[in-house]
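Input record, target 12 of the design panel.
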């Protein structure tokens, strides 16, 4: 796709370019399960009655694992409170052994990494009151090319038991498989049987990446099974894994868990909001909680996530039910997880790029009728009462996690009040967008879900220095009854010359509640993005900063074709022999969003399949959307 040039006007403010080419680079096989299999017979090794909790080195260290790291991590489990919070397993991933087996066919711990042998490392971990895990592969070699266990299952399992190993992660690389279910089941059963034959209790973690629908069979062979390919420390990876793991709730039960992969919390590639979504949804999905960061360098913010006892308790609840998705609309989802004490954990998950209000009810999440309910926000720890509506404004990529219960004591808690914000200029990651010197509008809506009415309700704002934020409709109200809403529209003006970037506009909601008229004030900062529109006159799109750009393979390229892998790997843009100096190189499916500040009257494009694509030809669908959001 090559697209360029825009000139001034008032009406078109946004352009989204969506282009698709038929450049086929690999084979994508989509397998759809048409029936939901009944859970197979459970593996009865009495282990992992709640999802395993611990650490695995792979996400943070790759192949750089050694005895010292495992010992330091065990020490940190004790000193940081992780052990007391329930984290038990210190797990070693790939690369712990030598490149070949010993002459008598045994795996050999790499003497440079584990100089005293694996039993010594295990003894140290056990001396701290913890358990130790190890890694092998149901193939000829591990993913990093070390000797695999295929055909050596009993020898290896016996060695693991001799070393006092408590947990085995069993991978799927170099599997010499014909891809059939029968082959998958036989390779994973062979190691399961070998572990059983040792007589040592060893948690068995099946890692076949979700290839052969393990949710439908792996619970009779192992204690947990990976449901997806490898996670990485990015929002795109997290979102896609949630999409894949959420529908598999039917298969989870004590001793048998869906495993959406190890935690990335703390590794730096995501925002705190996204890491809270990661950890919170893993808990609601009854997933293993395996820390994947360098604990020696973990920040207080990272530890606050890993040590959130309320969230851990949701994961570890003894009912062992994976939360179900009960509503799925426009990129938002509601999960509900029944807990042993009758409460429900409720997750309001917003996968979209703008803050959104997500609502459900106590009846929909499965709670019985009651005179009143309380909801505890498991991150902020605030408890409120509700008549039955469960509603919150959820930031982009965020998850509000609530524990909801029926309680006769509801009236001693403040009503649940949500403040939503909408704007005609809602912008990726922000509530609204404005040009330097420009004006936009934002409408705030206060909703009262509590049984108690609100009185003396006021909504006030503070403006960043030099800005003006003024109400164009009433901002105070004497009372707001149960289920009532109160909207106020604000005119927001950024001073000329404001530097592009996000600006916080705090909105404070103040009200009184209950017989004693207790006053509550809560502040939510709206984010207004200042965006510089393109300069006057015509600009090639490749010179205009985009809001967001996604691409099927590799990044979108400016002024070159798409090389499909790294940034800058393209060639000159060429359509039917004509070379274009300016343009965009994309690959299906691609979506590019521009903010034009109300200053664009036309878009001129030359679109085609680049000449570098083989003569087989293909189809391109190119769409342009203009709008205010
Ligand atoms: C595979 C697994 C990962 C990790 C690596 C190690 O990719 O899925 O979790 O164990 O192998 O090589």
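The sequence produced for target 12 reads:
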């Amino acid at each position: 796709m090559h697209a360029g040039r825009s000139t001034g006007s008032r009406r078109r403010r946004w352009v989204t370019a969506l282009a698709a080419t038929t450049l086929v680079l690999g084979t994508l096989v989509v397998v759809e399960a048409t029936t939901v299999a009944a859970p197979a017979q459970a593996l009865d090794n009495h282990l992992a009655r709640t999802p395993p909790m611990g650490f695995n080195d792979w996400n943070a260290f790759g192949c750089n694992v050694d005895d010292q790291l495992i010992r330091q991590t065990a020490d940190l489990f004790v000193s940081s409170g992780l052990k007391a919070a329930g984290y038990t397993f210190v797990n070693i991933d790939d690369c712990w052994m030598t490149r070949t087996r010993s002459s008598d066919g045994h795996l050999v711990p790499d003497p440079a990494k584990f100089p005293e042998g694996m039993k010594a490392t295990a003894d140290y971990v056990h001396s701290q009151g913890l358990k130790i895990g190890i890694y092998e592969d149901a193939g000829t070699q591990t993913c990093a090319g070390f000797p695999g266990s295929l055909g050596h299952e009993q020898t290896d399992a016996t060695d693991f038991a001799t070393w006092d190993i408590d947990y085995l992660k069993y991978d799927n690389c170099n599997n010499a498989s014909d891809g059939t279910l029968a082959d998958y089941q036989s390779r994973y059963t062979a190691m399961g049987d070998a572990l059983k034959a040792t007589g040592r209790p060893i948690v068995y973690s099946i890692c076949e990446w979700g290839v052969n629908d393990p949710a439908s069979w792996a619970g009779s062979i192992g204690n947990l099974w990976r449901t997806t390919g490898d996670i990485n420390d990015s929002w795109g990876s997290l979102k896609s894994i949630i999409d894949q793991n959420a529908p598999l709730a039917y298969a989870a039960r004590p001793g048998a868990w869906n495993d959406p992969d190890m935690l990335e919390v703390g590794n730096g590639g995501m925002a705190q909001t996204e890491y809270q979504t990661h950890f919170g949804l893993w808990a609601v999905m009854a997933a293993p909680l395996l820390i994947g960061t360098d604990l020696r360098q973990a920040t207080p913010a990272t530890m606050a996530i890993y040590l959130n006892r309320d969230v851990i308790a949701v994961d570890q609840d003894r009912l062992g039910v994976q939360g179900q998705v009960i509503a799925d609309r426009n990129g938002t989802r509601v999960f509900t997880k029944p807990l042993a004490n009758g409460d429900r954990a409720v997750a309001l998950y917003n996968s979209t790029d703008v803050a959104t209000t997500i609502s459900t009810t106590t009846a929909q999440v499965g709670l019985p009728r009651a005179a009143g309910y309380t909801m505890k926000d498991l991150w902020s720890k605030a408890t409120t009462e509700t008549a039955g509506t469960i509603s919150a404004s959820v930031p982009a990529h965020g998850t509000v996690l609530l524990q909801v219960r029926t309680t006769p004591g509801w009236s001693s808690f403040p009503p649940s009040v949500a403040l939503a914000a909408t704007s005609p200029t809602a912008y990726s990651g922000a509530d609204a967008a404005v040009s330097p010197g420009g004006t936009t509008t934002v409408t705030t809506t206060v909703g009262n879900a509590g049984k108690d009415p609100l009185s003396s309700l006021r909504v006030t704002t503070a403006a960043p220095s030099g800005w003006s934020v003024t109400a164009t409709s009433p901002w105070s109200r004497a009372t707001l009854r149960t289920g009532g809403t109160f909207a106020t529209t604000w005119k927001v003006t950024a001073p000329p010359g404001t530097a592009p970037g996000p600006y916080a506009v705090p909105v404070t909601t103040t009200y009184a509640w209950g017989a004693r008229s207790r006053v509550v004030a809560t502040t939510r900062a709206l984010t207004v993005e200042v965006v510089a529109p393109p300069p006057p006159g015509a600009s090639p799109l490749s010179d205009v900063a985009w809001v967001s750009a996604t691409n099927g393979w590799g990044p979108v390229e400016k002024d070159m074709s798409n090389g499909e892998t790294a940034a800058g790997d393209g060639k000159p843009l060429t359509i039917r022999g004509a070379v274009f100096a300016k343009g965009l190189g994309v690959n299906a499916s691609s979506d590019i969003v521009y903010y034009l500040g109300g200053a664009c009257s036309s878009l001129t494009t030359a679109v085609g399949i680049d000449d570098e694509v083989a003569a087989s030809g293909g189809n391109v669908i190119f769409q342009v959307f203009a709008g205010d959001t």
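Confidence is low (pLDDT under 50) at residues 1-40.
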